[in-house]
Amino acid sequence: MMKMLKNRKKRVCAGMAALLAASCVLSACSKKESDSQETRKLIMGTFTEDSVTDRAGKAVAVTISNTVPGIYVETWPSKGAYVSMDHLFDGTYDLVIVPAGAALETYTGTGACEGERKEKLRAIAACYPIVSTWASPKELGLSEVQELKGHPLAAGNEGSETAKVSGEVFDVLGINEENSEIWYYGIKGGADGIRDQWADGIHAFTESPVSAYKDLASENRIRFLSYTDEELDAILTGHPEYSKITIPAETYENQDEEITTFCEKVLVCVSADMDEELAHEIAWALEVNGPVYTAGQDFMRAMDDKEFRALDLPVPLHDGARRYYEEQGYFK
User: What pTM did the predictor assign?
Assistant: First the structure.
């Protein structure tokens, strides 16, 4: 099923208003009185200080801390997803924020975790997507990624995640260096290529909206390109870490049409040993107050979508989170 990112027009203002009334909102949402409860601190591993993942982690931590009675979540910077998950299981961390691909390798003991399976890894929810975003100069009149064959393309810095995903896309679409001019420029370099008129297609595999593409969109220079359903099915085959997603119109200035594409979800993960009731309350907190505390982070708008948060995750849900989602009718 195609996942729809909900439009957050006026979202930041609404979020600020909600924050000003937080004491009323949160007391209304609280499941039980907490005045006499002793506060328990949980540690969440994120990524480097002020990275996108770290900012997401802080938003999730504030959501949980201000919603779940008796719980305070403190974020710690981490050296990466695999290190975070090691620390999850050595007791240093209680929660981690990691990309779906790294979580899948850890859970299955494959890839970078070959032979070191951590079968107790569980997901609570997805919190934001890493999105495949293609754009081309508006004057070319292109609308689909497949139309880029034969054009000069900026595919991401060599060795980068964007370049890796570009290669996976090219394999499906039959794009190669024999029929197209492929340049390994980064996301900002690709955006400059549109301005300097040497690139007809640019790709970013990163959070959405893409910062480097915002100015191009505001200048009405680019059109965003979609994949067909058949292409998405082919790309996702053998890649359970990816999911279909739709970027709504007006995510960028002058973007009148939605974008049909795919993403890698970034997950809030815990150990299966976490108390079931605590996992249940964290899932509840992310639903009822996630939109309030993530309102200032545009790249987290997908958290408003219950299907994005809870469905098509590549690792099992924690029993407590699954019970909450079942109670809410997510799996009907």
Answer: 0.88
